[in-house]
Amino acid sequence: MKSGLAGAEMMKERLQQKLEEAVAGLLRSTGAETAVPEVALEVPRNPEHGDFASNAALVLARPLKRPPRAIATELAERLRGETELLEDIEIAGPGFLNFRLRRDRWHGVLKQILLEGPGFASVPAEVPERVQVEFVSANPTGPLTLGHGRQAVLGDSIARLLAARGHEVTREYYFNDGGRQMRVLGESVKARYLELLGRAAPPPPECLEEGGAWPGEIDGLPVIFPRDGYQGDYVREIAEALVAEYGEDLVDEAPDGRFRQVAQERIFSEIRATLEALDIRFDVYFNESDLYREGKNDEVLAELCERGLVYEKDGAVWLRSTELGLPRDRVLVKRTGEPTYLLPDIAYHREKFRRGFERIIDVQGADHKEQFPYVVAAVGALGFDASRIELVMHQFVTLTRGGQQVKQSTRRATYVTVDELLSRVGRDVFRFFMVQRKADGHLDFDLDLAEETDWKKNPAYYVQYAHARACSIERRAREAGLGLPDAGSFDASPLRLPEETQLLRKLAEFPDLVRRAADSREPHHVAYYLRELAGQWNPYVQDGRRHRILSDDRPLSLARLGLAVAVRTVLASGLALIGLSAPERM
To answer: SS3 of 210, please?
Structure first.
């Protein structure tokens, strides 16, 4: 086990062992013919309930046919001899056991953090894997929306957490440069191009609102704006650039040619710039068009056919997904001969396995929830271990201002983009707000709170300010000639106040928190933990009379300075795991 886990995790393991021994001894003494049951040992939400709590007595009540509190009393008596580990044992409620460890047991945590520094957050997995995390993968048909922004932050934070567990992580963007949407983009750009040249008239607004094509005429000019065409200003700007460069030379060119190519390149370049502004960089950009060009879609279709999982109906090619345990069959190839999204998605995931990834994590929006099981089932039918494919699904994001939802429409291009929000709140606030809620829960992005500059109100600044305060304490210590504490000779015994022990407990939780957040793919646990740690540290520093850090009492000053260094180290590590900076001054 990593030495950094010698804090809360190692103490928990030791107490768990002693508790199980007490349970086994009690069962033997009563002659009960039952195996030693699993008993839980958890950290209570309320610190007043002790350092750890167990339901052991409640679990034993049925096989022993005795009241839980009576069992708890006997277990407590058997454990009271563990004086090197325990300070006190309390019996609460119907029979819960609340354990308080000796205060000096927590002091070793500071020495570990001082010794390991940022490595305290590294919690190597027993079996590291080659992991691919695919996220964002937005169609290059427009700027990134808030939903894309949430997915970007989630995916990048999950990748950071997995790296902290020692996995070999590849961040991948699936570049959707094939299919109908890209053709519609080219058609939209050409329609605006012709409009700017006076060769076509804009369609009536009511037509665009309904999302329908309007192939009529206005004042003798044809109206050719496509069904579900892209209406944003960015489409007009691309058309204006084409007019400036080519004039009327492209009038007879097909929409799927240069119009599509120029739009795709420009939009994707802007998407990459947005991601870089979020401090997100991908290792691989995988092109959907490669699946078509290299015949991967055809290969997958042929393999599924060999396995009897494909049939034709109404001119289309269908997947027999009901035979794979799914509720209905799905179309793989339309009657027009064009693949649906399902076929290249299956081919893409087959390629992920063939490239050697041992774990595949797809971070996708709730709109992909229905299709995902079909992809997984088909890949499994092709002979791959589909259990190694995971979906991290996130719900949508709504923007609120003044308590009211800001209305947005992707079709009418009246949505707020990630770039617009970044210009208002900055990268750190944006990332914190996007990751502070569980992914599968709806997220209300409170613009008023995000724009709040008071560190006491804005949760992102509240955490960062806690880090800056710790840095300030270190600067003042150096200026006073005290110097930073040495890990080898560090003495934390002067830290005797309950709030200091509470801080030590919270620091000790961090390695296990990182493990849990990484393994569950839930980075919101890190944001929540950081707010809790800052919520203990900021009031501690604020009360300068009771918690004066630099004083004439040198041993106490050094101990409290060590506490400041440890808090700063853990806050910086936690902020890095969700992609935020750790400012030294605010």
So the answer is: helix
User: What HEC string does 340-391 produce?
Assistant: CCHHHHHHHHHHHHHCCCCEEEEEEEHHHCCCHHHHHHHHHHCCCCHHHEEE
* Residue 577 burial (CB count, 10 A): 25
Q: At 498, list the tokens.
A: 């309950």
What CATH number is given for 131-178+277-394 in this structure? Answer: 3.40.50.620
Cβ partners under 8 Å of residue 179, min gap 6: 288, 338, 339, 341, 344
Q: What is the CATH number of domain 3-101?
A: 3.30.1360.70
Taking the C-alpha atoms of residue 34 and residue 28, their distance in angstroms, rounded to an integer, is 9
Phi and psi angles of residue 179, each rounded to the nearest 5 degrees, phi first: 95, 180
- CA dist 54 and 48 (Å) reads 15
Contacts of 273 (CB under 8 A, 6+ apart): none
CA–CA separation, 73 vs 79, rounded Å?
A: 10
List the chain pLDDT tens, one digit each, 586 residues.
344 344 556 777 888 889 999 999 998 888 877 777 888 888 888 878 888 999 999 999 988 889 999 999 999 999 988 877 888 899 999 999 999 888 778 888 898 899 999 999 888 999 999 999 999 998 888 889 999 999 999 999 999 999 999 999 999 999 988 777 888 899 899 989 998 998 876 766 655 555 555 566 666 677 777 777 888 889 999 999 999 999 999 999 999 899 999 999 999 999 999 999 999 999 999 999 999 999 999 999 999 999 999 999 999 999 999 999 999 999 999 999 999 999 999 999 999 999 999 999 999 999 888 999 999 999 999 999 999 999 999 999 999 988 888 876 554 555 688 999 999 999 999 999 999 999 999 999 999 999 999 999 999 999 999 999 999 999 999 998 888 888 888 999 999 998 999 999 999 999 999 999 999 999 999 999 999 999 999 999 998 788 999 898 999 999 999 999 999 999 999 999 999 999 999 9
- Count of CB atoms within 10 A of residue 88's CB? 13
Measured between alpha carbons, how far is residue 414 from residues 135, 183, 417, 543 in Å?
A: 24, 22, 9, 48
Q: Are strands 389-394 and 330-333 parallel, antiparallel or unpaired?
A: unpaired
Q: Where in the chain is the domain with CATH 3.30.1360.70?
A: 3-101
| Cβ atoms within 10 Å, residue 539 | 11
Q: What is the CATH number of domain 455-577?
A: 1.10.730.10
**H or E segment to which residue 404 belongs:** strand 404-405
CA distances from 493 to 22, 159, 504, 543 (A): 30, 38, 12, 21
Instruction: Give the CA-trace dihedral at 437, 441, 442, 447, to 10 degrees.
Output: 0
Count other C-beta atoms under 10 Å from residue 560's C-beta. Answer: 26
Q: Which residue stretches of 126-259 are H helix? A: 146-164, 180-196, 205-210, 233-246
585 burial class (0-12, 13-18, 19+ CB within 10 angstroms)? Answer: exposed
Using CA atoms, how far apart are residues 77 and 95, in angstroms rounded to an integer?
A: 14
Q: How many other C-beta atoms can be found within 10 angstroms of the C-beta atom of residue 48? A: 7
CB-CB contact of 408 with 379 (8 Å): no
Instruction: Cite the residue boundaries of each domain of the chain with CATH code 3.40.50.620.
Output: 131-178+277-394
* Cα–Cα distance for residue pair 299/303, rounded to 1 Å: 6
What amino acid occupies position 437?
R
CA distance 43 to 477: 34
User: What span, in angstroms and rounded, lies between the C-alpha atoms of 259 and 188?
Assistant: 9
